[in-house]
Amino acid sequence: MGSLRTFAVAFALTSATAGGVALAQTQGGPVSALKGHNSNAPIDVASDRIEVQDRADRAIFAGNVKVRQAELTLDTQRLTVAYTSTGNLQIDRLDASGGVVVRSPSETARGNFGVYDLNRRIITLIGAVQLERGESRISGARLTIDLDSGRAVVDGGPAGVGESGGRVTGRFTVPQRRGS
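Above: the chain sequence. Below: its structure as tokens.
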């Protein structure tokens, strides 16, 4: 990818309670609801335009791109699909850019760029990452999800204009209790 610097799609969310954050700090990362996602399921893609670069083993989808694999969906403006074509077409990697939104039945993640490495079973979102589950949300610079272990890691990044000092931030809902 080099000069294009397109990272690409993915997501997952952390625990929806403050207790989950403490657990993440002591055990190396929160667990995503994506653990066990079937990365062998067929991938459906729809867009306004497609350009197939067969000699480079890639296809570029542009405009209102919608991707679905099992219960996982991805919306973006541009998607590059890298594949291997040794007799049977096999998708190796998805790179998304432009308002990337990834959804599972219980979580939504947003970022500027995303990468879904199907061979390594890792999803990464980069740039202004926001993860949501219900009313709880976490913000950071980068999200990495290992689909095998379910481990999700959110990293801060360098401080920029309007950013939170390069730190990971979160707001979590708490159970409502009657009278104290």
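The chain has a mean pLDDT of 77.
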